[in-house]
């Protein structure tokens, strides 16, 4: 029995090391100088850790500037923030209302519509990409932050609706009846009874939507254009198109910077994230 | 001391005096219907309408811009004659098999390990799910560096004295596709673990008591009792992982760029490339539609079960 | 006039009629209990009265007003639910006052009313707690308070005591009865528990398969069940049924089951008209009398319950249950003699199951 426990912990620790190794490599590489990278092992700790690469990743290298752009991630970070916050609020808000309407108000087509939405969650975005481009272009917001926000709301609403609808379905029917007898209509039932009940799921939906929108690449690439380039797209450009010698330390610092916001949200929210992933995938 | 019931009664007499009219007022059900309009519009127009649009485009000879000159299924004929498309479909099969299989096997094993009431369970869970919070682009860039043949893992192991060690898959056309599975599993194994763990924690603890009374070894309980009980979880995980595979675009772009050549290309990237860069709108649309059909084939049993579960669920 | 009237109320789901032509008049101040097994339609009926489910046909009048098309909050009703349905995120005070707030009442007036109700139900010290911090019985009081505060014409109760344990349920039953007597308001109360129905109701409405089987006082429902369903549903242990026919045996009347003859005593005159016809006889356990003049029967099992004991007997080819006092000792396998109290028995048509004696 003792050996079993030992083997158990051995396996767990091994798995944890394997998962953490690339993260460790990313951080340690970002703190090294290029000379050290060329001459040492990727597993080695930085001998003389410094944040020079981080500075270069963030601000860019203005000596090789094209126009007034230095190629750093700082401006695309700002773009990402400007996209994420409104898209987050709109997609979660719309999902909450839609999920509530579908779950709490008996309507003939509610199940059909929910099924249609559920299928929508699985449609690869590539399939509707071109018509969406045309629509966004017709609306005159292609290649801009508002365009990207709208696209994220469109792509996020299926997921947020599902989360809220599945949660609101667990609210006892008697509670809804009681509220109707008390004279609460659609909005007041939502505002006074349902929304306060759904605070945990609201948190979960916010965290997951934040992660998805921040981490998106395809939509940013397609709809962002020059002015609406989010951080993932900028990172990919930075890594993919360097002139001269590749600077792996700058690449890794840029990667770390891109990952940092979602990583922070994940580590701070901890349990909520785990719960949300489970609740969002296997319905409650 | 007045009976409080008297007060309650008295006032209700006044209440009765306020005769309510019998007219029909605005009903909350109507508001509920109106609240569905935005989501319904998105569903109908942006999901299903656009799917039809894409299908229509796939029947035309559109290149840079949509032109509605129909050529029947010519684009599909071209698509199936396209070598790059076949490579990408083949890669989808290889990657799908390795990625889904790997995620499920490793995810389930990790879930079982954690389920054995280990200390610091939260720490392991946090570590295993950490990559999930990062984007596929980040994952791709990290692994590209780790698998860098000149300075990465291969070189590090050789420096330890194992001179003949080879791990240069990322630059080998016949191996590049496997690197996708490695990075993909690294990122998504935590999700599988979390789902399996939730399933394991839902198992009636009496099952464990009963099996202990019967003296069944733990591994047999997992193999013969628990695993069959979790079949719906396995099903769900399989569906979720399939959906991720079909959409896989970011990871290829960041990790291998589809290369070397097109050796690690995937259909999702094929489609985007033809629509955005190659001015082959019709061909890209045809590819997108084939991709969609594959997705539907895989997920329709899932949707069917979801809805069946609904029907049994609520109301009396 | 705060009664409730159902006129030809019909309910269908997806074309399937589950309730047809329900007619029921509930007079002001009545305590009406809708009684029936689960799935009989009693909750559906209550929900239709509340306006939570639309009717397919017919009209519902509350307080002399046709409310068929009105929203629940316009019907001048209040409802108490089995699960209490308290708003989990609101304090007791807010729970009770929520309906008034939705109705647009002034704040100080709401406060006054909530305080009155709190005093009436003795929940004043709990006012600032959340429902999750209350016991089942306290939650129940709050739920009742939420109904009381609206001072409606009609109170609707949907199995309000089912979630309480046995002792608390008995206490709350007494309290509900007292409350009804004090307020004198019309109450429509749904339950599957016949004890609740018998103790609380001024009128019991027995429902089965979407139809009213009998609507009468509790005594009449018990003593003169309208049909076999009512007879078997009300009363525990359940009524004994034996099919056969009555025969004249000199001056005596016996019931011949085909496998034996049970003596009947005090048979009323109107029942004598049925002699010779095939009928189903219904006798409650207390209608079987242990008497030396009776028919020989074998004791299968005796179940003492404290104040009574129920004796399972094999007699005339059937198994029946009889009641007697706790002092007598029965051994399984021993013999005894019983006869049937003809004055209190029920007689049913074997085909339709309708009661044959009273209208």
Considering the chains and any ligands shown, give keywords for the structure.
heterotrimer; A: 284 residues; mainly alpha; MetI-like fold; 2 domains; 75% helix; globular; C: 359 residues; alpha+beta; Rossmann fold; OB fold (Dihydrolipoamide Acetyltransferase, E2P); 9-stranded mixed beta sheet; 6-stranded mixed beta sheet; 9 helices; elongated; transmembrane helix (chain B); transmembrane (chain B); transport (chain B)
What does this protein look like?
- The complex is a heterotrimer of chains A (284), B (316) and C (359).
- Chain A has 284 residues and is an all-alpha fold.
- Chain A has 2 domains: 2-50, no CATH class; 74-281, MetI-like fold (Orthogonal Bundle).
- Chain A has helices spanning 2-30, 34-39, 52-59, 74-104, 110-122, 125-138, 145-169, 173-181, 186-197, 199-215, 218-223, 231-240, 248-269, 271-281.
- Chain A is globular, with a radius of gyration of 23 Å.
- In chain B, helix 3 packs across helix 15 and helix 12 packs antiparallel against helix 15 (281-313).
- Residues 9-22 of chain B have low confidence and may be disordered.
- Chain B is mainly α.
- Chain B has 15 helices and no strands.
- The model of chain C has no long low-confidence stretch (mean pLDDT 91).
- Chain C is elongated and about 80 Å long.
- Chain C is built from 9 helices and 19 strands.
- With 359 residues, chain C is of the alpha+beta class.
- Chain C has helices at 42-50, 92-102, 107-120, 136-148, 166-183, 194-200, 218-223, 228-233, 269-272, and strands spanning 4-13, 16-26, 31-35, 57-62, 65-66, 77-80, 154-158, 186-191, 203-208, 211-216, 240-249, 252-256, 261-265, 278-283, 288-304, 309-315, 318-324, 335-341, 346-348.
- The longest helix of chain C is centred in the middle third of the chain and has 18 residues, at 166-183.
- Chain C has 2 domains: 4-233, Rossmann fold (3-Layer(aba) Sandwich); 240-348, Beta Barrel (OB fold (Dihydrolipoamide Acetyltransferase, E2P)), CATH 2.40.50.140.
- Chains A and B meet through helix 1, helix 4, helix 5, helix 6 and helix 7 of A and helix 2, helix 3, helix 5, helix 6 and helix 7 of B.
- Chain A: Belongs to the binding-protein-dependent transport system permease family.
- Chain A: Its main location: membrane.
- Chain A: One of its GO terms (cellular component) is plasma membrane.
